[in-house]
Fold these 2 entries.
Entry 1:
Amino acid sequence: MSAMDEQPIRNMEDFAAVSGISRPTISKYFNDPESVRASTRARIEQALDRYDYRPNIYAVNQNRRLTKNIGIVVPYLADPFFAEIARYIEMMVIEAGFRPILLSSHGSTAQEAGNLDSLKALKPAGVLLAPLGRTSDRSVIEKFCRDVPTVLFDSNIDGMGEAFIGSDNVSFVEQTVEYITKTGGAPCFFEMRTPVNPNANKRRVAYIEAMETRGLEPRVVAIDGDGWEFEEIGRQGAHDVLSRGELSCDTVLCSNDRLAIGFLAACYERGLRVGNGPGCALRVASHDDHPFSRFTCPALTTAAHDYDAVSKTSVETLFQLIENGGRFDKRRETLFPAHLIIRASA
Amino acid sequence: MSAMDEQPIRNMEDFAAVSGISRPTISKYFNDPESVRASTRARIEQALDRYDYRPNIYAVNQNRRLTKNIGIVVPYLADPFFAEIARYIEMMVIEAGFRPILLSSHGSTAQEAGNLDSLKALKPAGVLLAPLGRTSDRSVIEKFCRDVPTVLFDSNIDGMGEAFIGSDNVSFVEQTVEYITKTGGAPCFFEMRTPVNPNANKRRVAYIEAMETRGLEPRVVAIDGDGWEFEEIGRQGAHDVLSRGELSCDTVLCSNDRLAIGFLAACYERGLRVGNGPGCALRVASHDDHPFSRFTCPALTTAAHDYDAVSKTSVETLFQLIENGGRFDKRRETLFPAHLIIRASA
DNA sequence: TGCATAATTTTACGCGCGTAAAGTTTTTGT
DNA sequence: ACAAAAACTTTACGCGCGTAAAATTATGCA
């Protein structure tokens, strides 16, 4: 509660006056409360809750070379997967005493460039960037990373940023393929022909590898479609493939959960029962553990990201990078393995 | 491309020098390019793409009483419904030449208060706020609205903010009830006992009204659960209700799509076929047209928000409010009707 | 061509805070 | 209790830009 009878505090000088401390010391306090004597700190904090003064952000940041802002850029926020990861990251950034600035590229190359552009203007201490992937403008990102300490996450672009934190796609695919083959059946791999996300390519390669290791013939089913509406693309693609009888396998391993959600919708529409039991025409498994994957019908068997580890490590790596002056000796890559979540779909 | 041989442009004065225009005129240009003579504008823009100078945001905002920032606060960004609406709003704000600042309250009262707090420090020109609802701290929001021009959207809190833009819950329920009763069957209403969102209460009231108007007995099925994980709450609640045989109706009208998604998952798990055809045990309909509602099994019949209208009107109303000095003569309320989307679930 | 008007330049101050330097007070260690 | 160290105060400047006032220049129109 602020005292109502007193004059309003307009700036740090006013606040210094009413708290009985000099302005430079007040300034010091706000930059690091521990840097002033305990008794002084107490007096400041006492005044602070009488008058709810706070330094003007713009004046502060004008005089700092480095702000306390941390940029977080995700490719598509309407995808709950990214919303969820952004939520984790936001909380950790706040906890560390920084201010997160969340931006979504909405699946658009121009928007991604615009986001980086407006971030640069904010002179952030660092940026956590999950790039679009294939449709990213490499030169834009490269230039940005030269100017701002940047850690990439979720999808890697070779050589960009000082570090990458993501999931180990080989582990994802290895676990699902292992599970499927052990429980009977050889999976085909269902994916978009031209995936935006580089993880998709790694998963395809890992799938082929995993199949060949087991002496099985890999079968990749590639469907058409552009953009970020993966569910609809998956649904359409599934209908196409199924109506043409091109699916020469009884278990479908989808590149990611959103495609799988569309695939399951198509199966349902066609009266195809999915699951393990008798009377089931197909089994379906996937990757990501999308927030909605447990509510599909049937619930989706999938390889789950370690959300906690990825977001925690991303944030920690960024802070190390910042403390290290914005550069690492060599680019760091950290990959986390998946853990398999067995549900009813396979 | 910036000329590489020249000295770097550190500030507006440097840029004024290289462009051959005085600094005050440059300043004027950045505040409104139309306010300078066309020939001057041309010279500035010519210099602008030789040297990619841009005014320091912090210095600019320090000297403006009003920044060009627009705050957007949503209760739960991991809900694709809000992510989608935020996307619409963001784009319109950018188009209007403002800078959107998107914040999610993550379902937490403290976070909502924190968001408003940090927004206030940014001295935004205005704020679009979708409050948590029941769990919002009224006094915090009230105080915020006194300081910052605020337009509420999605969920209304009486008297808060200068305007509210949302959907007409009566229209939503009226349309679903009308459709269900016309196509055979009297719906019961499936909802959370203590919904966070005020729309839920309006929908229940509208449901009862709609049923009584038709001479039918309203039956409300209230389930327990707290928080924002509506799908899981709906799924659990559906299992409880179904296992106890408490569902004395053949059509279930869910308060919102996320509950319905959970309800459908439970039905699938129990082997209950949902839909219109023969062999279907239940029909399920709902409200919101959640981005995922077309991918449920079966696809969800639902009353759709007019996303475009709500977001467009919210933004327009906020800009009117800003131009009007932050106050309206009286609080404005704009409600948009739903349009029914008939899919396979009912 | 001349004159009213609009646009621009020049000059100067202020915004709120970071921060450096020099002087003063308080704390710490013995 | 005393000197050294630490913390604080005072003073002063700078950050990059908005903006006002007065002087100057450019433009449009008769």
Entry 2:
Amino acid sequence: MRAYPHPNIDDVAVEHVLHALSDPIRLDIVHHLVREGEASCATLDGGRPKSSMSHHFRVLRSSGLVHTRIAGVQHMNTLRREELDRRFPGLLDAVLNAKSQG
Amino acid sequence: MRAYPHPNIDDVAVEHVLHALSDPIRLDIVHHLVREGEASCATLDGGRPKSSMSHHFRVLRSSGLVHTRIAGVQHMNTLRREELDRRFPGLLDAVLNAKSQG
DNA sequence: GCTATTGTTCGAGTATATTCGAACTATCGA
DNA sequence: TCGATAGTTCGAATATACTCGAACAATAGC
């Protein structure tokens, strides 16, 4: 594996971003990345099978939410925050600030 | 039919709102409601079958996005804007302001 | 080169969504 | 009451998503 494809942020549709964020596991990953910054896939798996997580990271990448950098044997993920804030002002903040029922 | 059930806004999870908005047809409906205010189902169907639209309105209602009022033979829909803005500050605005790729 | 580690890809199984015709319900007006 | 209108509900077909084991690829360290 020799580096991931990442979409240009201007090519991602808001529907795809919303869909990516509508899954609880992926929303968890995003929250985690906000708190901790860069993190490997293993750090973010929450005990789930690697193949499942690989699927979720792919969705997060293809929707422009996450950037994955290969560092040796680990794949390090970051939120594409500045780009997303430019492309969809206020969206990420609003989602991240949404409290669970209450 | 004697009035629809609408969830309490505090009981809706952000994941459900995001999922509801991630469908292009439903996002269209929401945009339409923002521009035009209250509208009947027929006004919003875009030529699609009524049974399909009925499904989408149900999703929009169950996620707390839309309120449906029965007025004679028509079912009039409105966005639950103030409630949503209180529950998820900035979310609806951010989604509505998202420009399609450009 | 061998081995352990990290993560991908493939394929199949299951679950959830979407679509839409057909039959139905409710209301309005004549 | 009859007919037209606006939507719902049901059921089935199809599509899309999620889950996860098994096999694979790439790197690091010895």
